[in-house]
Amino acid sequence: MHLSGRRILLVIAGGIAAYKSLDLIRRLREKGATVRCVLTRGGAQFVTPLAVAALSEERVYDDLFSLTDDNGMSHIRLSREADLLVVAPATADLMAKMAAGLADDLASTVLLASDKPILLAPSMNLLMWSHPATQANLATLKARGALQVGPGTGDLACGEVGDGRMADVADIVAAIERFFGLPGPLSGRKALVTSGPTHEPIDPVRFIANRSSGKQGHAIAQALQRLGAEVTLVSGPVTLPDPPGVTVVRVETAAQMLEATLSALPVELAVCAAAVADWRVAAPAVEKRKKVEGVPPPSLVLEANPDILATLAAAGERRPRLVVGFAAETERLIDHARAKLTRKGCDLIVANDVSPASGTFGGDANTVHLVTPDQVRSWPLMSKTAVAEQLALFLAERLGAESP
Ligand code: CTP
Questions:
Q1: For a pocket test of ligand 1, which of 259, 302, 311, 340 has the largest count of ligand atoms closer than 8 A to its C-beta?
Q2: Percentage of residues in the chain having pLDDT higher than 90
Q3: Ligand 1, atom 6: nearest CA belongs to which residue?
Q4: Ligand 1 atom at shortest distance from the alpha carbon of 274
Q5: For residue 268, what is the enclosing H or E element?
Q6: Which structural domains are found in the chain, ordered by start?
Q7: Which atom of ligand 1 is the closest one to the Cα of 312?
Q8: CA separation (Å) from 368 to 13, 84, 216?
Q9: DSSP string covering 17-62, please?
Q10: pTM of the model
């Protein structure tokens, strides 16, 4: 309940992401904040005043609200009685009004009649986002002190893919917590995460790879960052956007991944979620290998790749205090995970079933078992994001409350 006593005035403008604002209200209230909402006419096309009122347990202030009604609440008081104004979604239209100082509806009037800090969570189509007018408006608002969270990159409601997606609710909550100066349980700690597959070249155009999407590793990096950690994510080739607030180092091969992870030391926590290729081609061809009529296909001579997890776990003085590995198995999950724990010298193995029937590779859900030398904890099927959030909390607890 660390947002207890904090008063947030949430302005919900007319964008498809308005539905996420309902979850934002819920999450902020779970943390103890009081949330009052102003709903624009456009916002009310996407979420109903009733839903907003039910979740906030407050009256909703929309354009039907009369400044002369019996509770005497004015646009000035709405802002005065808040510690922070959050605009989510912040549409191109509302930001333009704010930049120009227009006050032609309740939301724009409240925002103009306020000297309180404002956090914007922009949300719009990518062309609207990248338009010089929007960027100029945002620059104006930021020059006046507005704070910004997001937008992220990804699938947009309009069917296009790119920048403009409203920040995830958890990121908006984390930005609000940072605004209030609330340290997360991992504040001041450094963490390293490996993610994705590695590509091992056969020749300049061909490579050996695996089916890892990087979803789980990227979600873990994001979850650790949300708890306040300073995170370096060393990622093999993936199609995922960089998690906001995380330092991302992109690599291709296992050898490059090892080099990048060692350069990120010292860290207190290392989570190796990458599906590192165990082998690489001993002598990749410098030129593209050509097929020649009548000549049998070439054989590949492989050699072992360095084991990044084992190297980190055996790094002596530079060893992270907590070294976590993943075990991707298709059978005898726990037995293999236990053996891996010992063989690699790490503190914890997160074992997951990657048999084709499980749908884990490339999918959005995961069933994991946390294997330590003395215990096995099995978690139910969860989204990869939920696994990441739970794991980050678990690791934060393991690292203990003492200051770094
Ligand atoms: N790992 C690593 N470097 C490697 C291989 C694996 O850091 N060269 C890490 C992975 O990131 C993961 C853990 O080791 O955290 C387990 O990987 P996995 O491929 O399941 O284990 P293997 O050692 O390859 O064991 P097996 O051959 O039994 O699958």
A1: 340
A2: 73
A3: 276
A4: 11
A5: none
A6: 7-179 (3.40.50.1950), 190-400 (3.40.50.10300)
A7: 7
A8: 39, 39, 11
A9: THHHHHHHHHHHHHTT-EEEEEE-TTHHHHS-HHHHHHHHTS-EE-
A10: 0.77
DSSP state of 303: E
353, amino acid identity: D
Amino acid at 71: N
Residues recognised as catalytic: 158
State the pLDDT at residue 1. 67
Q: Beta strand 147-148 with 118-122: parallel, antiparallel or unpaired? A: parallel
Cβ atoms 119, 43 nearer than 8 A: no
Q: Does residue 278 line the site of ligand 1, with CB under 6 A?
A: yes
CA angle 394, 338, 347 (to 5 degrees): 40
Q: What are the distances in angstroms from CA 144 to CA 74, 84, 99, 139?
A: 24, 15, 9, 9
Give 258's pLDDT tier (boundaries 50, 70, 90). very high
Maximum CA extent, the chain? 92
User: How far apart (Å, rounded) are the C-alpha atoms in residues 116 and 125?
Assistant: 28
Ligand 1 midpoint to CA 327 (Å): 7
Give the start-end residues of each E strand in 91-195. 118-122, 147-148, 152-155, 161-165, 190-195
User: Residue 333: CB within 6 Å of ligand 1?
Assistant: no
In the prediction, which pLDDT does 401 show?
Answer: 46
Helix (H) or strand (E) holding 375: strand 375-378
Q: How far apart are CA 320 and CA 190, in angstroms?
A: 10
